[in-house]
Amino acid sequence: MAEVIIIGGGIVGLSSAYYLHKKGYSVTILDKGDLKDNCSYGNAGMIVPSHFVPLASPGMVQQGIRWMFNSKSPFYVKPSLNGKLIGWGLKFLKNANAKHVERAGIPLRDLSLLSKSLYHSLADELKADFELQDKGILAFYKTEKAAEEEGHLVKKALELGLDMAALSAAECAALQPGLKLDVLGAVHYRCDSHLYPKKLMDALLNYLQLNGVKIMPNHEVTRIEVAEKAINSVFAGNMAWKADHFVLASGSWSAEIAKMVDMNIPIMPGKGYSFMEPEPEQRMQIPALLCEARVAITPMNGSIRYGGTMELGQINQKINKQRVLGIVESVPKYFPDLKPEVPSMDKIWYGFRPSSPDGLPYIGYSHKVKNLIVATGHGMMGLGLGPATGSLVSELIAGEKPTVALGIFSPSRFN
Ligand SMILES: Cc1cc2nc3c(=O)[nH]c(=O)nc-3n(C[C@H](O)[C@H](O)[C@H](O)COP(=O)(O)OP(=O)(O)OC[C@H]3O[C@@H](n4cnc5c(N)ncnc54)[C@H](O)[C@@H]3O)c2cc1C
Protein backbone atom coordinates (compact mmCIF):
# COMPACT_ATOMS: atom_id res chain seq x y z
CA MET A 1 0.00 0.00 0.00
CA ALA A 2 1.53 3.35 -1.02
CA GLU A 3 2.15 5.72 1.88
CA VAL A 4 1.17 9.37 2.08
CA ILE A 5 2.24 11.97 4.65
CA ILE A 6 0.06 15.03 5.06
CA ILE A 7 1.59 18.10 6.71
CA GLY A 8 -1.24 19.85 8.54
CA GLY A 9 -4.49 18.67 10.08
CA GLY A 10 -6.92 21.48 9.29
CA ILE A 11 -9.98 20.85 7.14
CA VAL A 12 -7.80 20.54 4.01
CA GLY A 13 -5.44 18.00 5.61
CA LEU A 14 -8.24 15.95 7.19
CA SER A 15 -10.28 15.92 3.97
CA SER A 16 -7.23 14.83 1.99
CA ALA A 17 -6.63 12.04 4.52
CA TYR A 18 -10.25 10.95 4.25
CA TYR A 19 -10.32 10.59 0.46
CA LEU A 20 -6.83 9.06 0.30
CA HIS A 21 -7.78 6.50 2.93
CA LYS A 22 -10.91 5.72 0.94
CA LYS A 23 -8.74 4.96 -2.09
CA GLY A 24 -6.63 2.54 -0.03
CA TYR A 25 -3.57 4.65 0.82
CA SER A 26 -1.79 4.37 4.13
CA VAL A 27 -2.00 7.89 5.53
CA THR A 28 -0.17 9.78 8.29
CA ILE A 29 -0.97 13.34 9.37
CA LEU A 30 1.77 15.39 11.02
CA ASP A 31 0.62 18.53 12.82
CA LYS A 32 2.58 21.00 14.90
CA GLY A 33 -0.42 21.64 17.16
CA ASP A 34 -2.75 19.47 19.21
CA LEU A 35 -5.39 19.29 16.46
CA LYS A 36 -7.99 20.72 18.80
CA ASP A 37 -7.88 24.21 17.33
CA ASN A 38 -6.75 25.73 14.05
CA CYS A 39 -8.36 28.03 11.52
CA SER A 40 -10.82 25.28 10.63
CA TYR A 41 -12.60 25.39 14.03
CA GLY A 42 -13.75 28.92 14.88
CA ASN A 43 -14.77 30.06 11.41
CA ALA A 44 -18.29 31.04 10.31
CA GLY A 45 -19.08 27.59 8.90
CA MET A 46 -20.35 28.87 5.57
CA ILE A 47 -20.14 26.87 2.33
CA VAL A 48 -20.24 29.52 -0.33
CA PRO A 49 -20.71 28.81 -4.04
CA SER A 50 -21.93 32.44 -4.01
CA HIS A 51 -18.31 33.55 -3.54
CA PHE A 52 -17.17 33.08 -7.13
CA VAL A 53 -15.59 36.57 -7.08
CA PRO A 54 -12.09 36.26 -5.56
CA LEU A 55 -10.91 38.74 -2.93
CA ALA A 56 -8.55 40.18 -5.56
CA SER A 57 -11.20 42.13 -7.47
CA PRO A 58 -11.77 45.69 -8.76
CA GLY A 59 -12.61 48.15 -6.01
CA MET A 60 -10.99 46.09 -3.24
CA VAL A 61 -7.80 48.15 -3.31
CA GLN A 62 -9.50 51.55 -2.89
CA GLN A 63 -11.88 50.10 -0.29
CA GLY A 64 -8.95 48.51 1.56
CA ILE A 65 -7.08 51.82 1.71
CA ARG A 66 -10.16 53.61 3.10
CA TRP A 67 -10.57 50.91 5.77
CA MET A 68 -6.94 51.21 6.86
CA PHE A 69 -7.66 54.54 8.54
CA ASN A 70 -10.42 53.20 10.78
CA SER A 71 -9.40 51.13 13.81
CA LYS A 72 -12.74 49.26 13.85
CA SER A 73 -12.84 48.51 10.14
CA PRO A 74 -13.13 44.96 8.81
CA PHE A 75 -9.84 45.03 6.89
CA TYR A 76 -6.35 46.09 7.88
CA VAL A 77 -2.83 45.84 6.52
CA LYS A 78 -0.17 47.23 8.81
CA PRO A 79 1.98 49.52 6.64
CA SER A 80 5.39 47.90 6.69
CA LEU A 81 8.60 47.52 4.74
CA ASN A 82 8.36 43.76 5.08
CA GLY A 83 9.46 42.45 1.65
CA LYS A 84 7.09 39.48 1.82
CA LEU A 85 4.09 41.72 2.41
CA ILE A 86 5.12 44.16 -0.33
CA GLY A 87 5.63 41.31 -2.83
CA TRP A 88 2.23 39.85 -1.89
CA GLY A 89 0.59 43.29 -2.18
CA LEU A 90 2.02 43.91 -5.65
CA LYS A 91 0.70 40.56 -6.84
CA PHE A 92 -2.70 41.39 -5.31
CA LEU A 93 -2.74 44.73 -7.18
CA LYS A 94 -1.89 42.99 -10.43
CA ASN A 95 -4.79 40.56 -10.01
CA ALA A 96 -7.48 42.92 -8.73
CA ASN A 97 -9.08 43.41 -12.14
CA ALA A 98 -12.18 42.42 -14.10
CA LYS A 99 -10.30 39.95 -16.32
CA HIS A 100 -9.11 37.96 -13.30
CA VAL A 101 -12.62 37.92 -11.81
CA GLU A 102 -14.03 36.69 -15.14
CA ARG A 103 -11.40 33.95 -15.45
CA ALA A 104 -11.88 32.74 -11.86
CA GLY A 105 -15.70 32.55 -11.81
CA ILE A 106 -16.32 29.14 -13.37
CA PRO A 107 -13.41 27.28 -11.69
CA LEU A 108 -14.38 28.67 -8.26
CA ARG A 109 -18.04 27.80 -8.83
CA ASP A 110 -17.15 24.26 -9.85
CA LEU A 111 -14.86 23.75 -6.86
CA SER A 112 -17.51 25.05 -4.46
CA LEU A 113 -20.36 23.02 -5.91
CA LEU A 114 -18.25 19.88 -5.82
CA SER A 115 -17.43 20.54 -2.16
CA LYS A 116 -21.02 21.21 -1.24
CA SER A 117 -22.14 17.91 -2.73
CA LEU A 118 -19.22 16.09 -1.04
CA TYR A 119 -20.29 17.57 2.32
CA HIS A 120 -23.67 15.89 1.89
CA SER A 121 -22.03 12.55 1.09
CA LEU A 122 -19.64 13.01 4.04
CA ALA A 123 -22.52 13.53 6.47
CA ASP A 124 -23.95 10.16 5.31
CA GLU A 125 -20.64 8.32 5.15
CA LEU A 126 -19.43 9.48 8.58
CA LYS A 127 -22.95 9.05 10.00
CA ALA A 128 -22.32 12.39 11.65
CA ASP A 129 -24.58 15.32 12.33
CA PHE A 130 -22.44 18.40 11.90
CA GLU A 131 -25.52 20.58 11.42
CA LEU A 132 -25.18 20.79 7.64
CA GLN A 133 -28.09 22.90 6.38
CA ASP A 134 -29.07 24.21 2.95
CA LYS A 135 -30.94 27.35 3.94
CA GLY A 136 -28.65 29.66 2.01
CA ILE A 137 -27.21 32.88 3.39
CA LEU A 138 -28.84 36.32 3.51
CA ALA A 139 -26.42 39.09 2.50
CA PHE A 140 -27.96 42.23 4.04
CA TYR A 141 -27.16 45.72 2.84
CA LYS A 142 -28.04 49.19 4.08
CA THR A 143 -26.69 51.41 1.31
CA GLU A 144 -27.54 51.96 -2.36
CA LYS A 145 -23.91 51.30 -3.26
CA ALA A 146 -23.92 47.82 -1.71
CA ALA A 147 -27.35 47.16 -3.24
CA GLU A 148 -25.92 47.93 -6.65
CA GLU A 149 -22.87 45.70 -6.09
CA GLU A 150 -25.07 42.85 -4.90
CA GLY A 151 -27.34 43.40 -7.91
CA HIS A 152 -24.36 42.83 -10.22
CA LEU A 153 -23.46 39.72 -8.28
CA VAL A 154 -26.97 38.28 -8.70
CA LYS A 155 -26.87 38.89 -12.45
CA LYS A 156 -23.53 37.13 -12.79
CA ALA A 157 -24.58 34.30 -10.45
CA LEU A 158 -27.67 33.59 -12.54
CA GLU A 159 -25.47 33.48 -15.67
CA LEU A 160 -23.34 30.87 -13.86
CA GLY A 161 -26.44 28.87 -12.99
CA LEU A 162 -26.29 29.64 -9.25
CA ASP A 163 -29.49 30.15 -7.29
CA MET A 164 -29.70 33.69 -5.89
CA ALA A 165 -32.41 36.30 -5.51
CA ALA A 166 -32.56 39.95 -4.48
CA LEU A 167 -35.16 40.51 -1.75
CA SER A 168 -36.82 43.63 -0.37
CA ALA A 169 -36.61 44.33 3.36
CA ALA A 170 -40.20 43.07 3.72
CA GLU A 171 -39.38 39.81 1.93
CA CYS A 172 -36.36 39.32 4.22
CA ALA A 173 -38.54 39.92 7.28
CA ALA A 174 -41.02 37.29 6.08
CA LEU A 175 -38.20 34.73 5.91
CA GLN A 176 -37.25 35.29 9.56
CA PRO A 177 -40.42 36.41 11.31
CA GLY A 178 -39.87 38.27 14.57
CA LEU A 179 -36.28 39.26 13.82
CA LYS A 180 -36.38 43.05 13.49
CA LEU A 181 -34.42 44.43 10.53
CA ASP A 182 -33.03 47.83 9.61
CA VAL A 183 -31.83 47.22 6.06
CA LEU A 184 -32.51 48.27 2.51
CA GLY A 185 -32.72 44.67 1.39
CA ALA A 186 -30.70 41.51 0.98
CA VAL A 187 -29.62 38.98 -1.56
CA HIS A 188 -30.53 35.45 -0.65
CA TYR A 189 -27.58 33.25 -1.68
CA ARG A 190 -29.83 30.21 -1.94
CA CYS A 191 -26.97 28.16 -3.37
CA ASP A 192 -25.05 28.34 -0.06
CA SER A 193 -25.07 26.10 3.01
CA HIS A 194 -23.66 26.13 6.51
CA LEU A 195 -22.48 23.77 9.23
CA TYR A 196 -20.92 23.70 12.70
CA PRO A 197 -17.15 23.42 12.10
CA LYS A 198 -16.21 21.88 15.45
CA LYS A 199 -18.65 18.99 15.05
CA LEU A 200 -17.37 18.45 11.52
CA MET A 201 -13.70 18.42 12.57
CA ASP A 202 -14.41 16.15 15.56
CA ALA A 203 -16.34 13.72 13.34
CA LEU A 204 -13.62 13.61 10.71
CA LEU A 205 -10.81 13.14 13.23
CA ASN A 206 -12.73 10.45 15.03
CA TYR A 207 -13.44 8.57 11.79
CA LEU A 208 -9.83 8.80 10.63
CA GLN A 209 -8.48 7.61 13.97
CA LEU A 210 -10.89 4.67 14.11
CA ASN A 211 -10.01 3.67 10.56
CA GLY A 212 -6.25 3.45 10.89
CA VAL A 213 -5.07 6.87 9.73
CA LYS A 214 -2.04 7.73 11.85
CA ILE A 215 -2.49 11.13 13.49
CA MET A 216 0.58 12.73 15.05
CA PRO A 217 -0.11 15.92 17.06
CA ASN A 218 2.81 18.05 18.27
CA HIS A 219 4.90 17.02 15.26
CA GLU A 220 6.14 20.18 13.62
CA VAL A 221 7.83 19.69 10.27
CA THR A 222 11.08 21.63 10.53
CA ARG A 223 13.11 20.30 7.64
CA ILE A 224 12.63 18.46 4.37
CA GLU A 225 15.26 16.32 2.71
CA VAL A 226 15.18 16.13 -1.06
CA ALA A 227 17.07 13.65 -3.24
CA GLU A 228 16.85 13.38 -7.00
CA LYS A 229 14.06 15.95 -7.21
CA ALA A 230 11.78 14.05 -4.83
CA ILE A 231 11.15 14.34 -1.11
CA ASN A 232 13.07 11.66 0.67
CA SER A 233 11.90 12.46 4.21
CA VAL A 234 10.39 15.19 6.34
CA PHE A 235 11.70 15.82 9.85
CA ALA A 236 9.25 16.16 12.73
CA GLY A 237 9.29 15.16 16.38
CA ASN A 238 12.99 14.17 16.27
CA MET A 239 12.29 11.67 13.54
CA ALA A 240 12.63 11.37 9.79
CA TRP A 241 9.33 10.41 8.16
CA LYS A 242 9.37 8.69 4.80
CA ALA A 243 6.51 8.15 2.34
CA ASP A 244 5.78 7.77 -1.36
CA HIS A 245 3.73 10.98 -1.54
CA PHE A 246 3.54 14.16 0.54
CA VAL A 247 0.75 16.73 0.84
CA LEU A 248 1.39 20.29 1.96
CA ALA A 249 -1.80 21.37 3.76
CA SER A 250 -0.38 23.66 6.44
CA GLY A 251 -2.65 26.67 5.98
CA SER A 252 -0.99 30.02 6.72
CA TRP A 253 2.33 28.29 7.49
CA SER A 254 2.54 26.64 4.07
CA ALA A 255 4.77 29.27 2.42
CA GLU A 256 7.55 28.66 4.96
CA ILE A 257 7.37 24.91 4.47
CA ALA A 258 7.29 25.28 0.67
CA LYS A 259 10.54 27.23 0.94
CA MET A 260 12.18 24.08 2.34
CA VAL A 261 11.86 22.57 -1.14
CA ASP A 262 12.68 25.86 -2.88
CA MET A 263 9.06 26.59 -3.83
CA ASN A 264 7.53 30.04 -3.79
CA ILE A 265 3.84 29.98 -2.92
CA PRO A 266 2.92 33.46 -1.68
CA ILE A 267 0.57 33.30 1.31
CA MET A 268 -0.20 35.93 3.93
CA PRO A 269 -2.06 35.11 7.14
CA GLY A 270 -5.38 36.99 7.25
CA LYS A 271 -6.30 37.11 10.92
CA GLY A 272 -10.00 37.04 11.73
CA TYR A 273 -11.96 36.91 14.99
CA SER A 274 -15.13 35.20 16.14
CA PHE A 275 -17.11 34.72 19.33
CA MET A 276 -20.26 32.87 20.37
CA GLU A 277 -23.34 34.14 22.20
CA PRO A 278 -26.47 32.41 23.42
CA GLU A 279 -29.12 32.35 20.73
CA PRO A 280 -31.41 35.40 20.81
CA GLU A 281 -35.06 35.01 21.71
CA GLN A 282 -36.09 35.54 18.11
CA ARG A 283 -34.23 32.75 16.34
CA MET A 284 -32.09 33.61 13.40
CA GLN A 285 -33.10 30.95 10.89
CA ILE A 286 -30.74 31.78 8.07
CA PRO A 287 -27.07 32.79 8.43
CA ALA A 288 -26.33 36.41 7.61
CA LEU A 289 -23.60 38.44 6.00
CA LEU A 290 -23.59 42.16 6.74
CA CYS A 291 -22.31 43.53 3.43
CA GLU A 292 -20.91 46.93 4.42
CA ALA A 293 -19.51 45.69 7.75
CA ARG A 294 -18.15 42.43 6.31
CA VAL A 295 -19.47 40.50 9.32
CA ALA A 296 -20.76 36.92 9.27
CA ILE A 297 -23.43 35.66 11.67
CA THR A 298 -24.18 31.95 11.84
CA PRO A 299 -26.53 30.06 14.12
CA MET A 300 -24.75 26.90 15.31
CA ASN A 301 -24.77 24.49 18.23
CA GLY A 302 -27.78 26.25 19.79
CA SER A 303 -25.78 29.49 19.89
CA ILE A 304 -24.92 32.19 17.45
CA ARG A 305 -21.44 32.90 16.10
CA TYR A 306 -20.29 36.36 15.06
CA GLY A 307 -17.16 36.58 12.94
CA GLY A 308 -15.21 38.95 10.79
CA THR A 309 -12.23 41.23 10.15
CA MET A 310 -9.14 40.54 8.10
CA GLU A 311 -5.78 41.75 9.44
CA LEU A 312 -3.20 40.87 6.84
CA GLY A 313 0.35 40.54 7.97
CA GLN A 314 1.64 38.46 10.81
CA ILE A 315 0.98 35.33 12.77
CA ASN A 316 0.87 36.47 16.38
CA GLN A 317 -1.26 35.90 19.45
CA LYS A 318 -2.36 39.52 19.91
CA ILE A 319 -6.06 40.30 20.07
CA ASN A 320 -7.00 43.68 18.67
CA LYS A 321 -10.09 44.48 20.73
CA GLN A 322 -10.96 47.45 18.52
CA ARG A 323 -11.59 45.11 15.59
CA VAL A 324 -13.77 42.88 17.77
CA LEU A 325 -15.66 46.02 18.85
CA GLY A 326 -16.13 46.78 15.16
CA ILE A 327 -17.99 43.45 14.82
CA VAL A 328 -20.05 43.98 18.01
CA GLU A 329 -21.15 47.50 17.05
CA SER A 330 -22.09 46.63 13.48
CA VAL A 331 -24.71 44.01 14.41
CA PRO A 332 -27.53 46.21 15.84
CA LYS A 333 -27.20 48.52 12.84
CA TYR A 334 -28.77 45.70 10.81
CA PHE A 335 -30.67 43.83 13.57
CA PRO A 336 -31.83 46.46 16.12
CA ASP A 337 -32.81 43.80 18.67
CA LEU A 338 -29.57 41.87 18.40
CA LYS A 339 -27.03 43.42 20.73
CA PRO A 340 -24.06 41.13 21.28
CA GLU A 341 -22.08 41.87 24.44
CA VAL A 342 -18.45 42.83 24.10
CA PRO A 343 -16.82 39.42 24.68
CA SER A 344 -14.16 39.00 27.37
CA MET A 345 -10.67 38.23 26.02
CA ASP A 346 -10.95 34.50 26.80
CA LYS A 347 -14.15 34.26 24.71
CA ILE A 348 -12.52 35.66 21.58
CA TRP A 349 -11.30 33.12 19.04
CA TYR A 350 -8.95 34.01 16.22
CA GLY A 351 -7.59 32.17 13.23
CA PHE A 352 -5.37 32.87 10.23
CA ARG A 353 -6.89 32.56 6.77
CA PRO A 354 -4.20 31.30 4.38
CA SER A 355 -4.55 34.07 1.80
CA SER A 356 -3.06 33.95 -1.69
CA PRO A 357 -2.59 37.23 -3.57
CA ASP A 358 -5.09 36.35 -6.33
CA GLY A 359 -7.70 34.97 -3.93
CA LEU A 360 -7.48 31.45 -5.37
CA PRO A 361 -6.26 28.29 -3.65
CA TYR A 362 -3.15 26.37 -4.65
CA ILE A 363 -4.04 22.82 -5.64
CA GLY A 364 -1.68 20.66 -7.65
CA TYR A 365 1.74 19.09 -7.95
CA SER A 366 4.85 21.01 -6.98
CA HIS A 367 7.04 21.84 -9.95
CA LYS A 368 10.17 21.49 -7.78
CA VAL A 369 9.78 18.01 -6.32
CA LYS A 370 7.80 15.30 -8.00
CA ASN A 371 6.11 13.64 -5.01
CA LEU A 372 4.64 16.75 -3.35
CA ILE A 373 1.08 17.99 -3.77
CA VAL A 374 0.22 21.48 -2.58
CA ALA A 375 -3.26 22.03 -1.12
CA THR A 376 -3.53 25.38 0.58
CA GLY A 377 -4.19 29.12 0.19
CA HIS A 378 -8.00 28.90 0.42
CA GLY A 379 -8.28 32.24 2.24
CA MET A 380 -11.81 33.01 3.36
CA MET A 381 -13.29 29.87 1.74
CA GLY A 382 -11.20 27.02 3.12
CA LEU A 383 -13.91 25.43 5.21
CA GLY A 384 -16.27 25.33 2.27
CA LEU A 385 -13.65 24.12 -0.20
CA GLY A 386 -12.03 21.50 2.05
CA PRO A 387 -13.70 18.30 0.82
CA ALA A 388 -13.33 19.20 -2.88
CA THR A 389 -9.66 19.94 -2.31
CA GLY A 390 -9.13 16.68 -0.41
CA SER A 391 -10.90 14.69 -3.09
CA LEU A 392 -8.83 16.34 -5.85
CA VAL A 393 -5.62 15.60 -3.93
CA SER A 394 -6.60 11.93 -3.80
CA GLU A 395 -7.36 11.91 -7.53
CA LEU A 396 -3.98 13.47 -8.36
CA ILE A 397 -2.08 10.97 -6.24
CA ALA A 398 -4.04 8.09 -7.77
CA GLY A 399 -3.14 9.37 -11.25
CA GLU A 400 -6.81 10.01 -12.10
CA LYS A 401 -8.13 12.92 -14.15
CA PRO A 402 -9.20 15.57 -11.62
CA THR A 403 -12.97 16.14 -11.44
CA VAL A 404 -12.36 19.90 -11.69
CA ALA A 405 -9.82 21.45 -14.09
CA LEU A 406 -6.92 22.63 -11.93
CA GLY A 407 -4.98 24.90 -14.30
CA ILE A 408 -5.95 28.18 -12.63
CA PHE A 409 -5.09 26.77 -9.17
CA SER A 410 -1.53 25.76 -10.14
CA PRO A 411 0.91 26.16 -7.21
CA SER A 412 3.61 27.36 -9.63
CA ARG A 413 1.61 30.29 -11.02
CA PHE A 414 3.74 32.92 -9.26
CA ASN A 415 7.09 31.48 -10.30
C1 LIG B 1 -13.15 34.58 11.32
C2 LIG B 1 -13.06 33.58 10.18
C3 LIG B 1 -14.22 33.16 9.55
C4 LIG B 1 -14.15 32.26 8.49
N1 LIG B 1 -15.31 31.82 7.93
C5 LIG B 1 -15.26 30.93 6.91
C6 LIG B 1 -16.47 30.44 6.34
O1 LIG B 1 -17.56 30.78 6.76
N2 LIG B 1 -16.38 29.57 5.30
C7 LIG B 1 -15.16 29.16 4.81
O2 LIG B 1 -15.15 28.39 3.85
N3 LIG B 1 -14.02 29.57 5.37
C8 LIG B 1 -14.03 30.45 6.40
N4 LIG B 1 -12.87 30.90 6.96
C9 LIG B 1 -11.59 30.44 6.39
C10 LIG B 1 -11.27 29.01 6.81
O3 LIG B 1 -11.42 28.88 8.20
C11 LIG B 1 -9.84 28.64 6.37
O4 LIG B 1 -9.67 28.91 5.00
C12 LIG B 1 -9.56 27.16 6.59
O5 LIG B 1 -9.85 26.79 7.91
C13 LIG B 1 -8.12 26.82 6.25
O6 LIG B 1 -7.95 25.45 6.46
P1 LIG B 1 -6.54 24.76 6.31
O7 LIG B 1 -6.71 23.31 6.54
O8 LIG B 1 -5.91 25.20 5.02
O9 LIG B 1 -5.63 25.44 7.44
P2 LIG B 1 -5.68 25.32 9.04
O10 LIG B 1 -7.04 25.00 9.52
O11 LIG B 1 -5.02 26.53 9.59
O12 LIG B 1 -4.77 24.06 9.33
C14 LIG B 1 -3.39 24.08 9.06
C15 LIG B 1 -2.71 23.11 10.02
O13 LIG B 1 -1.32 23.01 9.66
C16 LIG B 1 -0.58 22.85 10.84
N5 LIG B 1 0.83 23.22 10.60
C17 LIG B 1 1.32 24.44 10.30
N6 LIG B 1 2.67 24.39 10.18
C18 LIG B 1 3.04 23.10 10.40
C19 LIG B 1 4.28 22.43 10.40
N7 LIG B 1 5.45 23.04 10.17
N8 LIG B 1 4.29 21.09 10.66
C20 LIG B 1 3.13 20.43 10.91
N9 LIG B 1 1.91 21.04 10.92
C21 LIG B 1 1.87 22.35 10.65
C22 LIG B 1 -1.27 23.80 11.83
O14 LIG B 1 -0.97 23.46 13.18
C23 LIG B 1 -2.74 23.59 11.47
O15 LIG B 1 -3.35 22.61 12.29
C24 LIG B 1 -12.89 31.78 8.04
C25 LIG B 1 -11.73 32.17 8.70
C26 LIG B 1 -11.80 33.07 9.77
C27 LIG B 1 -10.53 33.47 10.46
UniProtKB/TrEMBL annotation:
Alphabetic keyword roster: Oxidoreductase
InterPro entries named among the record's database cross-references: FAD-dep_OxRdtase, FAD/NAD-bd_sf
FAD dependent oxidoreductase domain span: 4-396
GO cellular-component term (any): cytoplasm
One annotated GO molecular function: oxidoreductase activity
Pfam families in alphabetical order: DAO (PF01266)
The name this protein goes by in its record: D-amino-acid dehydrogenase
Source species taxonomy: Bacteria, Pseudomonadati, Bacteroidota, Sphingobacteriia, Sphingobacteriales
